[in-house]
Structure of sn-glycerol-3-phosphate transport system permease protein UgpE:
Amino acid sequence: MKRQRHDLSRRLVFAALCGYLLWVVYPMAWVAYSSLKPDEAVFRDAFALPELDVLQWGNYARAWSEARFGAYFFNSVAVTSASVALILLLGSMAAYALSRFHHPLGNAVYWLFLAGLMIPVQLSVVPLFFELRALGLLNSRLGLVLVYTANGLPFAVFILAGFFRALPRSLYEAAVVDGCGEAGAFWRVMLPLARPGLVTVAIFQFIGIWKEYFFAFMFTSGAGGDSARTLPIGLANLSITAQYQNDYAMLFAGVIIVTIPILLIYLALQKHLVRGVTAGALKG
């Protein structure tokens, strides 16, 4: 009886997981194949698969050129890459210093970083707006990079500090004995050992910045901001345009263009993500 109840429980859990998988995956699959339909087919039979002989690959070309997704895609790549690189660089150095060196203010600085995780982004938008305007960085990619970097540093310090605390101090001492200074021990020994944590931070920050809308909308809505707008802003504009023109096939193509880089990054690095969260955050 106990074995039968166990088998029944496993089957119920498996059925529930399959239902959840279908619930999550099918909407994206529907958007993907709807992006290859003509507009009239989207409204005529919304759930039917597209006909193979009339696949509308031109929807992607129109989204890329007419909706300016090419320019928005370049802005997203530039802003996201620069922001993630700065977050990893500054976050790793701050986390290493706070976890390895004892200072009376060390814990206070560490908790100050963690306090940044608890502040809603909406509360910071007004002072950030005035600061960027005073620096002449509104409606620019550099302004977005600085905002995203500052917003991502608390999470990076929290994750990476746990990794550096978990590393044996004997490795650092061996590096010093071999002739490395503080900087050499960090760059050559300690930082490579924290690679799972770096990958974890990079994935989370890449996904968060790539799809971020609020800051991008607030800081690139002025005159001249079109040259710095990212894909989420372009997708929102395309959504408004599609509703007026009934061009939902092009809108679906834009959604797929925005989604594909996130899926590729996650599929390529998912093993490192699970390992990083388990080894770093829990030990931290």
Remarks:
- Confidence is low (pLDDT under 50) at residues 280-284.
- The first helix runs from residue 2 to 34.
